Structures are given as C-alpha cells and as structure tokens.
Amino acid sequence: MLTILVSLSSRFPRPLVSKIRPLINLQTYSTHSTNPTKSLSPISFSDHQTPKRPYPDHYLSVREEPMVDQPTILETLTCYANDWKRAMDFFNWVEAECGFKHTTETYNHMIDILGKFFEFDRAWQLLDKMPERDHTTFRVMFKRYAAAHLVQEAISTFDKLGEFNLKDETSFLNLVDALCEFKHVIEAEELCLKKDKNFNEKIAGFVMGTKVYNMILRGWLKMGWWSKCREFWEQMDKDGIIKDLYSYSIYMDIQCKSGKPWKAVKLYKEMKKKGIKLDVVAYNTVIRAIGVLEGVDVAVHLGREMLELGCEPNVVTYNTIIKLLCENGRVLEAYKVLDKMFRRGCAPNAITYHCIFRYLEKPNEILALLDRMIESGVRPTMDTYVLLIRKFGRWSFLRPIFIVWKKMEDDGLSPNEFAYNGLIDALVEKGMIDMARKYDEEMLAKGLSAKLRPELVRGECDDG
C-alpha cells in the first residue's frame, strides 16, 4: 500500500514531514477508484502556483487545526532558500491549505529569499500585504539591495520609511551596516561623514558616533584594504571618536587578517592597560593571534586565563583552538577538544566540524565524521555540503560526492550554485558529460548561475 507520508518524505524537508505525520489519518486506497493503477503523486511546487489540494478527500482526512507552526514554516523556507519559486509556492500553500496566518517573521524570511534572487517587485508586493512591518523587515531589504549592488535603491528605501513610522536611527544604522557588510564602504562613508547639508537635514538628530565609525571600520576590514583601515583608525582619533571594546576588537581582527598578529597582541595589551574589560569576542581574536604567533599551546594557556577571569569560552573559542590544532597536524587532539565541548555543555556548530573536515585526508573518515555530526544533532549547512563536494571533487572521487548529495537531499536542502558547480565539475572531469549536462540544465531552470563549460555546449551533431 502506498502511503502519503512516503510521497511527502520524498518531496518535503524533514521538518515539515515530521509535523504533518501525526496530523494525517491514512486510509487505504480504494480499489473502486476510477484509476486504481495510478499511483499517488507527490506534492510538488514546481509551477509557481498555489498548489491545489494534493489528494482527494477519500485518501486522507486532515484535522481542522493548522498542520504546522511558525518554527516549522521558517525551517522549511530555509530548506527552499535556493529555490525561490518553490519557497513562494510553499509560502502560499501553507496559508491556503493549512490555514496558517503568516507572521512578520515568516514574511521577513520569504522577502529575504525573494531578495536573494533579485525578485524585488515580488518582495515589495509581500511587504505591502504584511499586517505589520518591523526594523528587521527593512534590514532584510537593505541587505538584499546592498548584496545586489543597488545602493541607491537601498537609500531610497530608507527615505520611504516615514510611511511606516520606522525612519529612525535604528533603521539608519541598519542601512549603514548593510552597505558596509556588502563592501559598499565608500558610499557608506560618504553617506555618514561627507559634509552634505541636504543629507544632514534628512538625518537630523542621528549622531555619527562610535557605532557608525565601528561599522565603517568593519567595512574596510571586509574590503581587505589594510592601508585604508589604518588610515581610518587614525581618523577616529582626529575626529574625537572614543574607541570602545568593539573598535579594538575589529582592529585586532584587521591586524590578524593582514598578517600582523604581533600588532593584535600589542592592542590586546593596550586594552588591558586602559582598563577595557575584554569580552569573549576580543579574547577569541587574541587567542587566534597568539596561536599563530607563539603556537597553539600558548593559545590554550590564554584560554585558561580567560576562564579564570570569569569570561566563559563560547563555540568560537573552541573552534579557534580546534582550527589551530588541525593546522599544526594535531587532528587527534582536535577530536579530544570536540569531545570536551560536549562535556562542558558548549554545543559545537557546523563550523566546528568544518575545521576538522578541511584537514582529513581519507574519504571514510570524512563520511564517518559527517554521520557523527548529524547524529549529535548538528545539522549540516549548505556550506558543509559544498565543502565536502569540492573536497571529493579535487580528489576525483565520485561515489562519496553522490553519498553527500543524497544526504543533502534527504535533509531537504535545495542545492545552491556552488553545490551544483562542484558536482558538475567532478562529472566533467570524469567524462560523464550527459549527466553533467542534466545537472547543468536543472541548475539553470532554478535560476542559478552556471559556469560556462565548453564541454556542455551542444553541437549540431548532438541533435541529430
């Protein structure tokens, strides 16, 4: 007997299926059906329409209460983050068929997915339908416009916020942060610090203080323009800006990433001299710097000092130590730190496992660690799958790639362009052109950017 849950499992992410399962009463397929040989079709959101009721009433009965709740909706939308049409269909379907009333948070998540694929008109249509918008709604819009390099559109969105009673300092800081996050620091600096009377009138009352300067400093860090970072750090003193814990943390990170860990350590000592109490973020940066400069054992000693001073290490602290150990070829010790995290009640995250994955050299060990990761309750991200697909691809190992791909699909994640490109590159390398072309076409159908590969271009002879 075919069951609906089997079909659901093949099409829906696990979070949704696990919620629907207890709410469905399965019934035996009637042998008096007009077409008893026809199998049940899985629910599919492929035509960008709100799906009809997927099964006739005599197949199942559904209780009247909503099938799913907000966490389930958010998790399912995350699974569809790389397929906006499917996400939109699911978003509409769950409202029409399950009676779910979308919240500001679910609207924000859907708008974020649309913005990722430059579907800004659709995003605004949703935004206009929302019963209530918040700062997060427009932070999402700023972020997606900045990511698409549509700086003027981001600024114009801020100008419209008076209509929603959200044109305030928080929104302005969100705008500046989004511009800096996506490397539009020049525009952000001009927006905040250029002596433009017209603009100053628009943002009257907003103080261009330490917060704004820290955002711009972090923006230059993102750009990797080290000389500009130093120049701006000095400019903060000239402009009378008080440097706080976050200013120092950002500049220590700049020194580490620009290959000058000794300067980061010097800043750490300067902070202690000034009486600035370090938080876990600042300690994590200096632990990394000392680890590179003086070795992982000294970094571990600093971690103990941090603990004695009442600053509890977090997952980033452990990740930093694990990464340092792996970089020094001490992978077995890294595993011991991983075990210690569980004992100390600090749950590892996907990045913890990434640190180890990068330094393992045997496919069986990698797949075993992936299984351990999943069994421990840490859900692999799309970055996890891409990392492993690329790693196996460099080694020309197809079988492990397909094992990873299957786990990704079983987890309900829709592959992004990096996953597709990693798989296609491996197939082309192995001469499996027809299969590579199939995935290339599937990728393009989803609106994802494919690499130009001469091997996959069909010639006239291919059609004959």
From TrEMBL:
Claim: Ribosomal protein is one of the keywords in the record: no
Record's keyword terms, sorted: Repeat
Signal peptide: none
Protein name as catalogued: ECSIT-like protein
PANTHER family xrefs: OS10G0422300 PROTEIN, RESPIRATORY COMPLEX I CHAPERONE (CIA84), PUTATIVE (AFU_ORTHOLOGUE AFUA_2G06020)-RELATED
Compositionally skewed regions (Polar residues) per UniProt: 31-48
Top-level lineage group: Eukaryota
NCBIfam families, A to Z: PPR
Gene Ontology cellular component annotations, sorted alphabetically: mitochondrion
PROSITE patterns per record: PPR
Record flagged with keyword Ribosomal protein: no
Database matches in Pfam families: PPR, PPR_2
PPR-type repeats, residues: 103-137, 209-243, 244-278, 279-313, 314-348, 416-450
Disordered as annotated region, ranges: 31-52
Stored InterPro entries: PPR_rpt, TPR-like_helical_dom_sf
Protein family per UniProt: Belongs to the PPR family. P subfamily.
Listed GO MF terms: mRNA binding
